[in-house]
Amino acid sequence: MQTITTLQAVYNSLEHVMDPEIPVLSVLELGMITDVKVDIEGVHIKMIPTFAACPAVDIIKENIKNAVERDLQMPAFVMVDKEVNWNSNRLTSAAKEKLRDFGIAPPARHEGEVSVDLLIKTTCPHCGSENTYLRSPFGSTLCRALHFCRQCGMMFEQFKPLS
Amino acid sequence: MQLQQAIQELITKMADDELVIGHRNSEWTGLGPVMEEDIAFSSMAQDKIGHAWALYRILHESFGGSDPDQFAFLRNAQDFRCCHFVEMPIGSYEFSLMRHFLFDHAETVRYQSLSGSSFTALQHLAGKVKGELKYHTLHADAWVIQLCTAGADSRQRMQSALDNCFQLAGGIFEPGEGEDLLIAEHIYPGEAALYQQWLNNISPVIEKAGLILPALTAPVYGGRKGQHTQYLQQLLEEMGEVFRLDPEATW
Ligand SMILES: [Zn+2]
């Protein structure tokens, strides 16, 4: 019972660790947490970066450690999980909703492979139109692509689908 | 050559290619022909340098190699194993775009083959990187086709860029000493196989763009043996300058 309570407390704490690049999404909503264990030493958390070259990984690891140690008053150990690779289907539906509200188009679900089709006709997060085109597969951060909406004449970013 | 050493050579040449082309790409920051291209080359630079780091980390963690920062910045030019293609200065936009097109397709083929590697650390990294590389080749293909279909003058410039790049690009596939061992142990399928697959992948785009693929008559080899162009030394000095000021600093 004790452990279950503690695990729940860890997850509660993680809900408040936000991604530095998309501050409306927590590390849980992004699907970055792969394992949480509690033992006599403290809390052991495994996480995975979204993109391999993500410059924020060390900051995120540090933020997770600080939040959990503050909330649970026990040592936390954060490791990058080498067994699992992140892919965009790990985003929760709540996360996709928040992305849209934040002005970023969420990634379409993929079936193991990302094709160009997943990038064209991306729904505009501002007006909901599908009359859009891919302007560049590279946006302001590694995880974003740049689109243009012909309907409302606005440029918008998309969280890229990644297999 | 022992298998362990052959794997390290393979990882070193891949990482050095990525580190050097990453720094070349970053030189486009502020110089791109349009804002999107500025961002694209900066993003790709970040990606490449990130991949180089992941590879240096494998050397460090799996083989007890030196610290990744030290390894990247404090080696002499002759200890680098990058090909001449990535060393060349950025030149014109057409040259850099063509290099990006040829290099990223080569990288895609390499990581795709490594995603089935018997060496777990490489296999895992390849699984991650090959998905991301889709965006690099997507970007390259789109721009190559767009510029080649934007008029005769533009197409001619792209053809010259391809002609200038092709023998250099052949140097990516310079055969290595321990290759037979790597093939036998299913680490990867070897350079000749990668070269064939690369040709298969770039040909449809070349055709669609209306370009003529030159014959690979004299691939520029030497980089994998530590023989380099004068440009590498200059680049290493620039890259290492900040680092050498304080090698103990954490990044
Ligand atoms: Zn719109």
Describe the structure.
The complex is a heterodimer of chains A (about 160) and B (about 250). Chain A is of the alpha/beta class and about 160 residues long. Chain A folds into two domains: about 1-80, GMP Synthetase, Chain A, domain 3, CATH 3.30.300.130; about 100-160, no CATH class. Chain A is about 25% helix and about 20% strand. Chain A is built from three helices and seven strands, in the order αββαβαββββ. Chain A has helices at about 1-15, 55-70, 95-100; strands at about 35-40, 40-45, 75-80, 105, 130-135, 145-150, 155-160. Chain A has a four-stranded mixed β-sheet. In chain A, strand 5 (about 130-135) and strand 6 form a beta hairpin. In chain A, helix 1 (about 1-15) packs across helix 2. The radius of gyration of chain A is 17 Å and the shape is elongated. Chain A starts with a helix and ends with a strand. Chain B is mostly helical and about 250 residues long. Chain B has one domain (about 5-245): Ferritin. Helix content of chain B is about 70%, strand content about 0%. Chain B is built from ten helices and no strands. Chain B has helices at about 5-25, 35-65, 70-75, 85, 95-115, 120-150, 150-170, 180-185, 190-210, 230-245. The two termini of chain B are about 35 Å apart. The interface between A and B is medium-sized, with 26 and 28 residues. The site of zinc ion has 8 residues of chain A, from loops. Zinc ion binds near residues 124, 127, 149, 151 and 152 of chain A.
Topology record:
The complex is a heterodimer of chains A (163) and B (251).
Chain A: H1 2-14, E1 33-39, E2 42-47, H2 57-72, E3 76-80, H3 93-101, E4 104-105, E5 132-136, E6 144-149, E7 155-159
Chain B: H1 3-26, H2 35-63, H3 68-73, H4 84-87, H5 93-114, H6 120-148, H7 152-170, H8 179-184, H9 191-208, H10 230-245
